[in-house]
Amino acid sequence: MSIARCEGVVQIYRAQDVEVVALRDVDLVVDEGETVALLGPSGAGKTTLLWLLAGLLRPSAGRVWINGSDLGSLDQRKLDRVRAANLGVVLQNPGRNLIPYLTAAQNVAFAQRGLRRDRRRVGDLLDRVGLGDIRDSPAGRMSGGEQQRLAVAVALANRPRLLLADEPTSQLDGESGRAVVELIRQAAEQEGTTAVVVTHDKAVSDGLSRTVTIRDGRVGSEGRRGENLVVVGREGAVQVPPEYHHLLPPGSRARIEPLADGVVLRRVEG
Ligand SMILES: Nc1ncnc2c1ncn2[C@@H]1O[C@H](COP(=O)(O)OP(=O)(O)OP(=O)(O)O)[C@@H](O)[C@H]1O
């Protein structure tokens, strides 16, 4: 069963007279219980895709489903309800996920609103991200790395069906980063929380069950269990991964040779 699905998603930003096509025809299915790392070069469209899945942006074209609800068909009240019932979100700037004058413990407890407060879970989440000792410090006085770990605990407070996290380890050292990955994995295994995590951190992508690489606004390749496969797009487009550009440079011409189970591309000179 899929918890998140995108079909033909296009996102165009308009700033003054300039148009930026951030996503151009993205199809993606995320099944329940998967932990997915969203990879790709800077500006590829990863944050944009995460915001669309979080219902924080409406796509210029295409559709996004969360747990069977087509987000584009919902009014704001229903959208808020679907988000509250399904999602835990960690935005890139960790401070934006927190209430600065509340303590770490109060931030996590506040995120449990709607559910019965579960004090054990508050303490457990804070211990697991290494913040047990400063649970009574205000979030606004914490370092960037501490706020980042707290933001992950807050996002998981409500046992969301889907965790969406944008670079949740960018300000963390190796040990704290591993604790966050472990928390995400345990949430998947023990509570069935699916995760989609934008990351540049190899330790994070290695710890998750699948990688999806966005290049130039499209899903370029997908990896599972150590094998990376290119994805054939809607119109048959395939992106040649950068590590093969010396064999088939962008702009070169290739002959297609059919095989029983696929094709071979051979560069043609001149
Ligand atoms: N609000 C906006 N207005 C205009 N252009 C935007 C806006 N947000 C993003 N973009 C542009 O859209 C493209 C994709 O941006 P996005 O932030 O999704 O990429 P990213 O893969 O997350 O990059 P990074 O790894 O650097 O965070 C970029 O060219 C970016 O400059």
Automatic annotation (TrEMBL):
One Pfam family cited in the UniProt record for this chain: ABC_tran
SUPFAM superfamilies in alphabetical order: P-loop containing nucleoside triphosphate hydrolases
Taxonomy, superkingdom: Bacteria
Gene3D superfamilies cross-referenced by the UniProt entry: P-loop containing nucleotide triphosphate hydrolases (3.40.50.300)
PROSITE patterns named in the record: ABC_TRANSPORTER_1 (PS00211), ABC_TRANSPORTER_2 (PS50893)
Annotated protein name in UniProt: ABC-type lipoprotein export system ATPase subunit
UniProt organism field: Nonomuraea soli
GO CC, one annotated term: plasma membrane
Signal peptide extent: none
Lineage of the organism: Bacteria, Bacillati, Actinomycetota, Actinomycetes, Streptosporangiales
Keywords: ATP-binding, Lipoprotein, Nucleotide-binding
ABC transporter domain sequence ranges: 4-241
